[in-house]
Amino acid sequence: MKLLTAAALCLGLGGCAGVDVAQYRDEGPPLRLEHYFNGRIDGWGMFQGRDGRVQKRFHVVIDARWQDGRGVLDENFTWADGTTSRRVWTLVRQPDGSYRGTADDVVGEAVGELAGNALRWRYVLALPVDGKTYHVDFDDWMYLIDERVMLNRSAMSKWGFRLGEVTLSFVRP
Predict the structure, then answer these.
(1) Domains: count for the chain
(2) Tens of pLDDT, residues 134-158
(3) Residue 17 pLDDT level (bands cut at 50, 70, 90)
(4) Which of 48, 56, 81, 116 has the lowest CB atom count within 10 Å?
(5) Residue 154 belongs to what H/E stretch?
(6) Could you read off the pLDDT of 61-75 as tens digits, one per residue?
(7) Burial of 50 (0-12, 13-18, 19+ CB in 10 A)
(8) CATH code of the domain in which 54 resides
């Protein structure tokens, strides 16, 4: 019984361990948010539920601009069913090189850590589903592939339980 308890504890703690963004510090090309997210960016993505089935697909057009260390990312989504939505992020670079972000449907602040070609965003999103709003955790990773292409993968969870993933590709003109 002790062995079973110890094994369960190790597996539980191992599930809490995450990848540290610092491991990407030597990866290139270096991601500079102020450069990549400046102007128009197109993105295509999908949400997959826990079972891996694609539940939603979308196209997003981002109009991004920076002034005095503050960035605004105006995201306009068109969903596969024809509906639309919008999120406007305000980003601020911190003295330590991290980023803080806010948006109307983000609870509190998003925290972003940047190293090399990678950015990790963590935030709580107020997600409307069937007339109710749920606060869900996002662990959002972006990887700069080259000057034009960035890949984004987000894990969505609630109370530590995985709800699904968002996969997204961004392309600059």
Answers:
(1) 1
(2) 999 999 999 999 999 999 999 999 9
(3) low
(4) 81
(5) strand 149-158
(6) 999 999 988 999 999
(7) exposed
(8) 2.40.128.20
